[in-house]
Amino acid sequence: MKLKDIAHIRTGDKGNLVNIAVIAYKEEDYKTIKEHITVEVVKDYDGVDRLFFFADILESNWKVGTAISAHHAIGVVVEFIMDLLIVRIIILVIFISITLYIFNSITKPIARTVQIFGDIANLDLSKTIDEKELKRKDELGQMYNSFKNTIGNLKVFMKEMENTIQINH
């Protein structure tokens, strides 16, 4: 029995890759085709390892098999994995950048607040608070304005104390 008597064969190529599809005319011949068309048979023909795939096509009651170069199929998988790895690295870099930006946008103002509070605690009222900090529309802006008011009130208090001390002497 010849293959052409029990199956229709389609081939296609893409560059140096060849795909072979074997389509059984009758369902009972599918098993025979699957048994006789093996990796060893095709490899013996041209020395290339191939992966074989068989499937049912219900609409036409066909059994279809195809062979793809193992090197090509695995190469596609490796390429996909590398692309996925690159995408993950890019996402990770973006995530880390956003995290650092948010971290700095929170910690720098807090550190500045601690510095201002330390100056007030040491009665160093000569430092001024930047206008940009005072115009913030968040809780830190409110805190900076409170510090500014505290510094102003302490300056008035210290001036009154100085005047009182000078009067009493």
TrEMBL record:
Keyword line: Membrane, Transmembrane, Transmembrane helix
Protein's UniProt keywords contain Transmembrane: yes
Sequence intervals crossing the membrane: 85-103
The keyword Membrane belongs to this UniProt entry's keyword annotation: yes
InterPro entries: AtuA-like_ferredoxin_dom, HAMP_dom
Pfam families: AtuA_ferredoxin
Domain HAMP, chain residue ranges per copy: 104-159
GO biological process, one term: signal transduction
GO CC terms: membrane
The protein, known as: Methyl-accepting chemotaxis sensory transducer with Cache sensor
